[in-house]
Design a protein that fits this description.
Layout: H1 2-7, H2 9-15, E1 32-33, E2 38-39, E3 42-43, E4 50-51, H3 58-78, H4 85-108, H5 111-116, H6 123-133, H7 143-146, H8 148-163
Antiparallel strand pairs: 1-4, 2-3
Length: 164
């Protein structure tokens, strides 16, 4: 923390002589998940099911989608219909969660920066990645959703090779 303050003119001018009241710490891995997304009489939605990262907008996407899907399933169940919450809710939500998790991880391990700041940009790929980041994490027509882990890693490695 002292190095950050010292190396930033803006921070240095304001905080160089300030006492550290609390020892600075690093928090890594903001993700948290529930052990149960549903049981008899309830289904969790939004951040109650999965929380990935405070920097990414995934929370809004998951809150809206999980609420919408859960409401439809609960309505069907209350009307006497059959519902497989594991398949129709948990498995479905996890597809989107795992897709977004690839991008959160890719940000923190540097893969996304390699892609975003590459001198060579393919407009089609840029559009596909932006679509994912905009919340379209269930669009299996997008290769950056369907094969998210492989696609992001492969593209980042390709960009790195082009720099060498």
């Amino acid at each position: 923390m002292r190095a950050l303050i010292r190396d930033s003119r803006y921070l240095r001018d304001r905080f160089i002589d300030q006492e550290m009241v609390i020892e600075p710490r690093t928090i890594e891995g903001y993700a948290i998940t529930s052990t149960k997304f549903f049981d008899k009489g309830y289904v969790t939605v939004g951040n109650a099911t999965e929380f990935l990262d405070p920097v990414f907008s995934s929370g809004v996407t998951f809150a809206m989608e999980s609420g919408s899907v859960a409401a439809k399933l609960v309505s069907r169940k209350l009307k006497g219909g059959e519902v497989d919450f594991q398949k129709e809710y948990v498995d479905y939500m996890m597809r989107g969660i795992n897709t977004f998790r690839t991008y959160v991880t890719g940000w923190y391990n540097g893969d996304l920066q390699e892609i975003f700041f590459s001198k060579v940009q393919d407009p089609k790929i840029k559009k596909q990645i932006c679509s994912v980041l905009a919340g379209y994490v269930w669009d299996d027509t997008n290769p950056f959703v369907k094969q998210h882990a492989r696609a992001v890693k492969t593209l980042a490695d390709h960009v790195r090779m082009q720099k060498d």
